[in-house]
Amino acid sequence: MAAAQDGILEELRRLRARVPQLTGALAADADGLVLAQDTPGVDPETVAALAGATRTLAAQLADETGQGDLRELLVRGLYGYVASYAAGAGAVVTLLAQDRVNVGRLHLEGRRAGARIGELVDSAAATAGAATAATAPTTETTAKAPAKPAPARPRAARTSRAKPADARATATAPTVARTTTES
To answer: Rounded to 10 degrees, what is the CA torsion of 24, 29, 32, 34?
Structure first.
């Protein structure tokens, strides 16, 4: 994981060079632990813990509202932005930016960095998992239950936007039935 941390830190530094209005950048794992950080003047452990917790809540919100997997989260404060981007299976990249940042550029670069860092984190986790599996005793194999698919979210039926009929006109107008015969 040390090689991955070096790669993550290098990506965060390149990101800060591409977006000069960034005041900090960090990557955290799903548990809210710092993977790498470049956040002068900010406690990285606190920001990482908050980013991990926020990622979990935002992912639940996106899921409960039928929006799919979490991609990003943007918070705007009086003095600037905090933007978090999903990075792989469980990591998050959090960027701190000045209020004058171009938000479109922030999203563009943040998404790219999140994808790159996600690849680094996922490959490091796969390598660590393979190493653990190779050294683990193989006396017993257990079958893992298949993952339960997410339930389909029903969509509310849309109502017609046509104008309703005027109830007064139909209640007072006499109804006349005409029949015609042709000879």
So the answer is: -50
